[in-house]
Amino acid sequence: MCKTVATKHTSTELSGTGSVWVISATVTVKFETPAASRVLDDGAKVSGIEYTDRASGETQTVSADGIFVQIGLVPNSAPFADLVELNSLGEIVVDGHCRTGTTGIYAAGDLTTVPYKQIIIAMGEGAKAGLSVFEDFARGNIAALPR
């Protein structure tokens, strides 16, 4: 178990879908809002991270045995807003077969309401969407696109 967790966030507020932040008496959680950063290493493994604090403009260094990088979770769904239903987070609403509420439009991956935005889950959802298209076509629920 680690004694300190330092979270570097691009905003001054915590946000995200289903984020869970646990703080216990045995772990210190540091919340900071860095700008550009640089991973430090000793030639064999990670040794820390160097970043510029947005508030002060000062360069800070944090020693670390490991670094996790996460990108933002804001879905880029605006181009589809007039075609399918979006929830309050901007995710495309899908059923368990990756179908949207619009016949013939399917969605998969981080853009949808499926929980756990992970590459492996998005890959599986893409496969499921493809199978759903095949099934709907085979059953006559959708027609082939004109050539």
How would you explain this protein's 3D organization?
- The chain is of the alpha+beta class and 147 residues long.
- It folds into two domains: 4-63, no CATH class; 78-138, 3-Layer(bba) Sandwich (FAD/NAD(P)-binding domain).
- It has one helix at 119-138, and strands spanning 4-8, 28-32, 34-41, 46-53, 59-63.
- The radius of gyration is 21 Å and the shape is elongated.
- The N and C termini lie far apart (59 Å).
- It comes from Tichowtungia aerotolerans.
Main pleated sheet: 3 strands, antiparallel
Q: Strand order across the biggest sheet?
A: 3-4-5
- Report the helical percentage: 10-25%
Domains, number: 2
User: What proportion of the residues form beta strands (DSSP E)?
Assistant: 15-25%
In DSSP terms, counting alpha (H) and pi (I) runs of 4 or more, how many helices?
1
- The string of secondary-structure elements, in order, is EEEEEH
Question: What is the third-level CATH name, the topology of the largest domain?
Answer: FAD/NAD(P)-binding domain
Overall mean confidence score, pLDDT:
78
> Tally of extended strands?
5
Gyration radius from CA atoms, angstroms: 21 Å
Provide the low-confidence segments as ranges. 17-24
Give me the CATH superfamily of the largest domain: FAD/NAD(P)-binding domain
Structural class: alpha+beta
The CATH architecture of the largest domain would be 3-Layer(bba) Sandwich
C-alpha geometry: elongated
